Automatic annotation (TrEMBL):
It holds the Pfam family NPR2. This is Nitrogen permease regulator 2-like protein. One of its GO terms (cellular component) is vacuolar membrane. It comes from Ladona fulva (Scarce chaser dragonfly). Belongs to the NPR2 family. GO terms for biological process: cellular response to amino acid starvation; negative regulation of TORC1 signaling; positive regulation of autophagy. It comes from the Eukaryota. GO terms for molecular function: GTPase activator activity.
Length: 453
């Protein structure tokens, strides 16, 4: 089984062994206790002993060494005192894992346990006194079993106690894009605003579950990439989740999770509280289910809201959609523009399934079409600059009245339109125009079809 895994695969593995090594004044580095016995051979230890008991510059630092199919993580420590031979006592408590295992979440445990042993050594000579150290194997065995089984452990030695817990370190969240919309989770209430850095404090007031990242950056007057980094950090800590832009012209579809709303009373109360317009007049579950049931392909939020005006008076339909997306009751039906090859666009009647884009598919005509509608005052030489951007050419400012930020936005728009994997939301934010305007431009171009999925 282990042969399927590799260094950096991200999989977590159990602790295979815990050992204590010391620097003997005569014999040098050696293992004085390990559980299970002989898991780390003398040959393996000798090969990396210089990293297990390192020079002074690396003391009190987490060190991880991979050797002969094993990954060894330790926190080497030296205790300076004239009572020891060579005026110092050197030791390292190490955890051993499979070479492919992800071990970063064990590092705080190794450090805390090592610091606990320092306290015991300074109080009663627990490590340097052989009589005191007789109980160490059973202690390490208990730690090994408890951390592998329960991910937590309580270590008691005499009157001293320490608690160990393996806290899983989450992977970095996906990159945050301009068109993403951050929305607070219930976990945000457990964080104080003062806990965050100054930039995050400046950004947080503009997070309302409806503003996209680019709009937040503009309103907070914070550089776009800084806002993305802040929001990504909030996602990492579970303070916000990313959802899609809300539009009344958008289409949504219910998922099988709607059944949970029918059966779970706690879920129902949470939903009604979240979507209510006021605390005094809460909507009925029947009205909520009526709206959720009406959202489907071919029906926009606006059309449904107009049809069910009498049933949505006590609820905020934007919050209703937001709650549905956050909980998985609803999924957004996104629109993806696809540029057809010229021969297909000339004979649309023969098209049954839009062919995928290829690297040679012409897109400049679509970009020029959008450009002409968005910026009719720009023509001639300025339009040729847009042509250069649409063809992927590098442009410079030749004094034609186009600012660098404008050209940058057009260039970003060109990249957004270069793949059928880009949704209309992303393209709207990229080129800086409304959905209605961009949709009208694309619908007027016979070479463009819109995929809804």
């Amino acid at each position: 089984m282990e042969s399927r895994y590799y260094e950096g695969c991200g999989r977590e593995g159990p602790i295979r062994c815990i050992f204590l090594c010391e620097f003997h004044p005569v014999a040098g580095p050696k293992i004085t206790c390990q559980v299970p016995n002989d898991y780390v051979s003398k040959e393996t230890f000798d090969a990396v002993s210089v990293y297990i008991i390192p020079k002074a510059q690396l003391q009190r630092s987490i060190l991880t060494v991979t050797v002969l199919g094993k990954k060894i993580t330790g926190f080497p420590i030296s205790i300076d005192n004239p009572k020891y031979a060579r005026n110092a006592f050197y030791f390292n408590l190490c955890f051993v894992f499979d070479s492919w295992a992800r071990t970063v979440h064990f590092e705080p445990v190794v450090k805390k346990l090592s610091e606990f042993l320092v306290t015991l050594e300074m109080e009663c000579g627990f490590l340097s006194n052989d009589n005191c150290k007789v109980n160490l194997p059973s202690i390490l065995q208990n730690i090994l079993q408890e951390l592998n089984w329960r991910k937590m452990c309580t270590v008691v030695v005499g009157n001293s106690t320490t608690h160990l817990k393996v806290v899983r370190v989450s992977r970095d969240p996906p990159p945050v894009e301009d068109h993403h919309v951050p929305c607070f989770t219930p976990a945000h209430k457990s964080f104080c605003r003062e806990q965050w850095d100054l930039t995050t404090q400046q950004v947080i007031p503009f997070i309302d579950g409806f503003n996209h990242v680019a709009k937040i950056a503009a309103e907070a007057d914070v550089e776009n990439n800084l806002v993305k980094a802040c929001i990504q950090n909030l996602v990492y800590y579970g303070v916000v989740r990313m959802i899609c832009i809300f539009r009344y012209s958008a289409e949504y579809a219910t998922t099988p999770k709607i059944k949970e709303l029918l059966e779970n009373e706690v879920f129902q109360k949470e939903c009604l509280k979240y979507i209510a317009k006021s605390k005094t007049s809460k909507p009925s579950l029947r009205d909520v289910l009526l709206v959720y049931g009406g959202l489907r392909r071919g029906v926009t939020v606006k059309e449904l809201a107009m049809r069910l005006q009498q049933h949505i008076q006590n609820l905020d339909i934007r919050k209703l959609v937001q709650f549905g997306v956050l909980t998985g009751i609803l999924r957004r039906i996104h629109e993806y523009p696809v540029v057809l090859p010229e021969e297909c666009a000339a004979s649309p009647a023969i098209i049954t399934v839009p062919p995928p884009l290829t690297p040679t598919t012409p897109r400049s005509h679509l970009l020029n079409h959008i450009h002409a509608h968005l910026h009719p005052h720009l023509s001639g030489e300025n339009n040729s600059e847009w042509m250069g951007i649409s063809k992927g050419l590098n442009t410079t400012d030749h004094g034609h009245g186009c600012t660098a930020s404008y050209r940058s936005r057009l260039s970003f728009g060109r990249r957004a339109l270069s793949s059928q994997e880009r949704s209309m939301d992303e393209i709207c934010v990229a080129v800086g125009c409304s959905y209605a305007r961009l949709s009208a431009i694309m619908e007027g171009d016979p070479s463009v079809v819109i995929l809804r999925k």
